[in-house]
Amino acid sequence: FLTFSLLDVGGRTGIGTALLRLLHHPHAFTTLKFDPVTSLDLDPDLPRIAGQEFKDITAVQMNIFDLEPNSYDIVVCSHTIEHVPDMKSFIAQLEVIARQYVVLACPIDEKEPRSDGHIRTITREDLAALGYTDIEVYDSFHFHNGQAGIAMKAVG
Hints:
Elements: E1 2-9, H1 15-23, E2 32-41, H2 46-53, E3 58-61, E4 72-78, H3 87-97, E5 98-107, H4 124-129, E6 134-139, E7 147-154
């Protein structure tokens, strides 16, 4: 069995983090396990909401630039980078925090008008230029053009 610490950056309510924890719980019948599991967001409501609903994850309000290098084995950032003004610095900091892997999920080639709060369109080429060559694009009904992607990078 492989057990990794996991940080979910941009966890908002903690529900996605809780799902990852459930799917890869230390007692689950999987070879990949996540323990401990932390959800991080700038939203001050995250610790309250997640603390009430999801007792087996840690939820913190914090800026990623305040975390120590190599703090977590895996850093996941799902549907957050399209909201960030300085995406390159933000992703570079995710890589500083991670000991082994960074996993990004985001809309791909989103058309105008973009979804509320999305300040940039991200392409496969944008991710590849940052070293994310393991990119899976799939159909999604959450965005205007219906495509999203998951990209992973080994950092350790």
